[in-house]
Automatic annotation (TrEMBL):
GO terms, molecular function: structural constituent of ribosome
Protein name per Swiss-Prot or TrEMBL: CI-B8 domain-containing protein
Ribosomal protein/NADH dehydrogenase domain sequence ranges: 40-142
Keyword Isomerase: no
Taxonomy, superkingdom: Eukaryota
Entry keyword Mitochondrion: yes
Organism of provenance: Staphylotrichum tortipilum
GO CC field: mitochondrion; ribonucleoprotein complex; ribosome
Alphabetical keyword list: Mitochondrion, Ribonucleoprotein, Ribosomal protein
Compartments where located: Mitochondrion
Cited Pfam families: L51_S25_CI-B8
């Protein structure tokens, strides 16, 4: 059985997933989402990576039926785009064969099928917050308001993180003082051994 601290940390992750960035319900006409960006964050890909890490899990949590494909590549000039696919009004789309996510750049954004339209968001050199805001505006997603219980848990989590920062600083200072003391004792012993050897 896992310990209570481990369970608390996993619960905190679920609370962040449920009510953090990306906690939104997409409209029914959104058929799929495709992200494309570079493995490395330099070259303007930091915002897309952060969006992928922080917002996309929440979107998938609240919209499990919407396929979300991520295509990461090692190309230097790789684009950083987010493509939203929408079903046209009154059109029933056939079941689409979905490609999986790829880490070698092979899962490019497909062209929209008849009865579907695509909207592209350019993410290069943009912060994840700006990407999320444009995504919410263009998709028509409705943000999920955290419950009072979630807000309480998020506050407790923030308090624990603040206390953890203070504890880490205190531990770092104590470890540094202990290292200095050990170094002083080592030098003193070495000097004492040298003076006894010279007698």
């Amino acid at each position: 059985m896992t310990g209570p601290l481990s369970r608390t940390n996993k619960l905190a992750g679920l609370v962040r997933l449920r009510s953090g960035p990306g906690a939104a319900i997409l409209p029914h006409d959104v058929t799929r989402i495709h992200l494309e960006f570079n493995h490395k964050y330099n070259g303007g890909h930091m915002g897309p990576r952060k969006f992928w890490r922080e917002a996309l899990p929440g979107l998938k949590f609240w919209n499990p039926a919407v396929p979300m494909v991520v295509n990461r590549s090692n190309e230097k000039d790789a684009p950083a785009t987010l493509t939203l696919y929408f079903r046209e009004a009154g059109v029933k789309l056939p079941d689409l064969m979905q490609t999986g996510s790829a880490t070698d750049g092979t899962s490019k954004a497909p062209a929209p099928v008849p009865g579907e339209r695509a909207v592209q968001i350019h993410m290069k050199n943009r912060r994840s917050e700006a990407i999320l805001k444009e995504f919410m505006d263009k998709s028509g997603a409705v943000p999920v308001k955290p419950t009072p219980q979630d807000e309480l848990e998020l506050r407790e989590l923030a308090d624990r993180e603040a206390i953890g920062e203070i504890d880490r600083a205190v531990s770092l200072k104590q470890n540094e003082e202990r290292r200095k003391e050990e170094e002083f004792l080592r030098r003193t012993r070495a000097a004492l051994a040298d003076s006894q050897a010279n007698m």
